[in-house]
Design goal:
Number of domains: 1
CATH class: Mainly Beta
Mean pLDDT: 78
CATH topology: Lipocalin
Order of helices and strands: HHEEEEEEEEEEEEEEEE
Distance between the termini: 46 Å
Shape: globular
Largest sheet: 12 strands, antiparallel, barrel
Number of helices: 2
Radius of gyration: 20 Å
Helix content: 10-25%
Keywords: Membrane, Transmembrane, Transmembrane helix
CATH architecture: Beta Barrel
Strand order of the largest sheet: 1-2-5-6-8-9-10-11-13-14-15-16
């Protein structure tokens, strides 16, 4: 009887966790689908950094008491893969909107309008150079629009990365270093901006594993810390105050790592977690759906 009760509790917990994951993911997709047909125009607002939404990540960006929320929907398709290298087509969709917080979701409150949208298709190449090292590079060329100001921009980005697997008991840490740049240019030629950055961080496991039968994956909680150093100060434009310039930031967070992508392969959701990033007057609460560094 005791064993049956334990199995029942584990089953109930599994269904609850599965429901929470599905709820969070579907809420993000629902926001995207709902907002695509709901635009508002306000000439006073011009959040010019929206073009970099895909590279900054999903989250709530707070500057000078104002909130701008970004939802990134990772979409990718594997073109080629073998034991040492792979080529992937990425087509992430990013939506930005204002006067809205993630805490509004439990009450069923969705934002009334979307402020920005970007789609940045690109190719990512990965090469396993040894058992414990992977080299990555990517190039993107995309499009963005700011519905509040009516501007349209071309977005471009490229970068290289090094991922090194370390040995530390059973925690399987990964040391990541990335160098990348991104830029945009408006279609009318009146606006353009670039930024480049060096990112370095480490992702460490807890060596606590369990099987999530409903999703068919193994799960491990992991923690990470990463730092960003911007060669060109990253500008966060605010509509009613001075712009905020960021030269560096630090991020810490925790994720659940899945042994394979959950729900739909094309969304590439292999992590689920939260983090906080801060630096030079900008604070970000991030919602994570993929490798966090």
């Amino acid at each position: 009887m005791c064993l049956e009760l334990k199995k029942l509790r584990v089953s109930e917990l599994t269904r609850y966790l599965y429901g929470m994951v599905l709820y969070m993911v579907l809420k993000s997709v629902l926001i995207a689908l709902t907002l695509l047909g709901s635009f508002s125009v306000d000439a006073e607002e011009d959040f010019t950094h929206y073009a970099f939404a895909n590279y900054l990540g999903s989250g709530i960006y707070q500057t000078s008491g104002q909130n701008a929320t970004v939802v990134n929907i990772p979409i990718s398709f594997e073109l080629y893969n073998n034991d040492t290298e792979s080529l992937t087509l990425r087509t992430p969709l990013s939506l930005g909107f204002f006067n809205f917080k993630w805490s509004d979701l439990p009450d069923g409150d969705l934002p009334s309008s979307v402020g920005t949208m970007t789609i940045t298709p690109g190719l990512e190449y990965r090469l396993r150079t040894s058992e414990d090292h992977e080299f990555q590079t990517y190039v993107d060329l995309g499009y963005g629009t700011n519905f509040t100001s009516g501007t349209h921009v071309a977005i471009y980005s490229a970068g290289v990365s090094s991922l090194l697997d370390l040995e530390l008991r059973q925690s399987a840490p990964v040391w990541v270093n990335r160098l990348f740049f991104a830029g945009y240019a408006s279609f009318d030629g009146t606006q353009s901006e670039t930024y480049s950055a060096l990112q370095s961080g480490i992702d460490i496991g807890t060596n606590m594993h369990w099987r999530w039968d409903l999703l068919g994956v193994d799960v491990e909680p992991r923690v990470f810390v990463t730092g960003y150093w911007y060669f060109d100060k990253l500008r966060f434009a605010t509509p009613f105050g001075e712009d905020v310039l960021v030269s560096n930031s630090l991020e810490v967070g925790a994720t659940l790592a899945f042994s394979k992508p959950i729900l739909w392969d094309w969304m590439g959701i292999d992590r689920l977690g939260l983090s906080v990033r801060a630096g030079d007057g900008v604070k970000v609460w991030r919602l994570i759906f993929e490798f966090p560094i």
